[in-house]
């Protein structure tokens, strides 16, 4: 465990329930536990590690507190580079599982959220109830907890485009097309009509040696909205679910391969074509959410449950980290009695303006690109 967290917090029997064990939920749970709270983290998915695209984790110059700096070090592994989402999650998950004050539970789907003057709680689909002095929603852009905090504004809205994402081993790319050792870790190759983000990350064994790395790519595509609605991924202006590889129509894959061949340079073209050929890709309809509140009583929201910017802003991870650090620093002052609601209101006052601006900064792109 990293010892740069503030250890001045006195031992207490105060507790928190965190709904969601993706990156934001794990960071929030770890920071709260390091602040002295007993934390229960509930995740609806199973314990099998999940995959994802790539993200930037090294913007440490924005960290102002010991808690934020320690979370950054833990999430990044001390490396300054783009990272595979799965690598970041693996580090955070290992920390949460090893912490004596954290109870991490998978296959636990929250159905209802409520609170009174003394505690907040959730009830699961199995009839279990989990209580805490505070309750934190980190359950993503389709957040159940957000519906309690902001019932007047419960849904993130479809931004009008999908992002195809995948990550492939470098050794599937022909040697003559592999990026050299000095190639930039992040690329935005010129295309025709769409946008592509590429990232070169360590292999699954952590190696950055040539031929052992991985290539992650994200293709912004505004031509699939009819398909997304036809398959139920989007209903009205609400994103319901992603488009998994097995559900992508064969004709769509053929068209994507043809478009890629005309639009993208190497090595990204080979990475995309390999992903299409092996059905190793996911279509993620992009949602956006501008919050007008983050807190209701003893319940607060963080990460994508609280704010959903377009990935083009590259700000989602950093915003989630700052949410977790700020929240923990606020509750570290104590959450007995009315102090719980006061601590969460302080968190809201410190984060709401910033996260609104983050989402709004990407909306001009979505309005021009999304259809």
From TrEMBL:
It comes from the Bacteria. Residues 158-260 form the 2,6-dihydroxypyridine 3-monooxygenase substrate binding domain. Keywords: Monooxygenase, Oxidoreductase. Residues 85-149, 281-360 form the FAD-binding domain. InterPro entries: DhpH_subs-bd (IPR054707), FAD-bd (IPR002938), FAD-dep_Monooxygenase_BioMet (IPR050493), FAD/NAD-bd_sf (IPR036188). This is Monooxygenase.
């Amino acid at each position: 465990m990293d010892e740069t967290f503030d250890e001045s917090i006195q031992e207490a029997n105060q507790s928190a329930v965190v709904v969601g064990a993706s990156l934001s939920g794990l960071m929030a749970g770890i920071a709260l536990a390091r602040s002295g709270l007993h934390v229960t983290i509930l995740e609806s998915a199973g314990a099998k590690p999940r995959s994802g695209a790539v993200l930037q984790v090294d913007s440490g110059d924005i960290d102002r507190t010991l808690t934020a700096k320690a979370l950054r070090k833990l999430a990044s592994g001390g490396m300054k580079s783009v990272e595979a989402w799965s690598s970041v999650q693996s580090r955070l998950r290992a920390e949460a599982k090893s912490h004596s004050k954290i109870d991490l539970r998978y296959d636990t789907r929250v159905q209802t959220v409520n609170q009174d003057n003394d505690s907040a709680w959730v009830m699961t689909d199995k009839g279990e109830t989990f209580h805490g002095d505070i309750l934190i929603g980190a359950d993503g852009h389709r957040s159940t907890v957000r519906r309690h905090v902001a019932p007047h504004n419960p849904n993130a809205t479809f931004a009008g485009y999908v992002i195809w994402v995948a990550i492939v081993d470098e050794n599937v790319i022909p040697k003559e097309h592999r990026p050299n050792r000095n190639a930039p870790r992040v690329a935005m190759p010129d295309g025709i009509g769409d946008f592509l983000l590429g990232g070169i990350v360590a292999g699954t064994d952590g190696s950055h040696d040539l031929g052992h790395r991985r290539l992650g790519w994200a293709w912004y595509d505004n031509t699939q909205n009819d398909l997304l609605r036809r398959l139920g991924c989007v209903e009205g202006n609400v994103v319901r679910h992603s488009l998994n590889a097995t559900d992508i129509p064969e004709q769509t894959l053929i068209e994507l391969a043809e478009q890629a061949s005309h639009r993208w340079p190497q090595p990204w073209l080979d990475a995309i074509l390999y992903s299409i050929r092996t059905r190793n890709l996911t279509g993620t309809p992009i949602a956006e959410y501008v919050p007008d509140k983050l807190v209701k009583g003893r319940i607060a929201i963080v990460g994508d449950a609280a704010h959903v910017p377009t990935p083009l802003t590259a700000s989602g991870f950093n915003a989630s980290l700052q949410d977790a650090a700020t929240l923990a620093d606020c509750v570290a002052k104590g959450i007995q009695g009315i102090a719980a609601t006061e601590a969460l209101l302080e968190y809201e006052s410190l984060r709401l303006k910033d996260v609104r601006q983050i989402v709004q900064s990407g909306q001009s792109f979505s309005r021009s690109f999304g259809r």
